[in-house]
Amino acid sequence: MDRVIITGGNGFIGKHLVEKFLTCKLLSLAVISNLHNIKDNFLSNKRFVEDSRLRFYTADIRDEKAIKDIFVNEKADTCIHLAAKISVADSIRNPDETMETNVKGTENVLEASYISKVKNFVFASSAAIYGDVRELPISEESELKPLSPYGTSKMLAEQIVLNYNRLKKIQNTASLRIFNVYGNGNDSQNDVISRFAQRLSDGLSPIIYGDGNHTRDFVSVDDVTDSMLLSVKAMENEENDIHSSTPVFNIGSGNGTSINDIAKKMIALSGLELEPIYKKGNQESGVILHSYADITRAKNILQFTAKKNLEQGLAEIINHANF
Description:
The chain has 11 helices and 13 strands.
């Protein structure tokens, strides 16, 4: 791993991943985002500005020619593909755009990787592809029954990644089915922890929609980015089992935590005397009641375990907020 390309590098996971990769001995790191002036979004970090290995490109993964030109120019050996439309609610309102970006866009990135002889390809998939699984924990062998266009788009994109690997167009691939990632810098309204932190920083009670008993597998962004580096390391080890197995892995903590428990922990960490506010739950389709990962395969093949426990991660978010 000498020359790396990250698509979606300006996103929440992307920024953390760029920082982590810069601790490695790389010759170059190219970051692609569809946002204009992507470099400006990194200028607040002096380390990014001064690192001569880092290059920025503005391009949309739906633009086949632009993506191919970047890959041919960079001659990367490794691609981490993060770029995607990630909102479940938006995918329900605008399914065509989600499909075009997440499926066709992924195909464009894969084809560009093939043409430029990328050796290692890591795809950020999602636990949303499972849907509302009743048998817990969720293993990679669980039936895929996504409840939203977003989940469907990730399922289809993952299949295309597998096809490129099986057809030997890309030597090594890994699809990481990421559960509920959280951490500093996540300002998405889709993230319940970020919403709670913002409310608490304003001295307000967290708002819970429904009874708060639904559970999720919350995994730190630091652990998610670790899983991506571990995936590449496994690919580069010719004796690793990743080469003889279906390269699909759950990335989570392996634990389910209720939204009620998240709210209580964050209130306690904030030092405020508050109680959650409950509002009528959103009955929109695409809502999953319970979800947590079986990470046995990731442990055995990638040597991955979530190192940051939830209390530590929540404390970092609370300490980072403006109380």
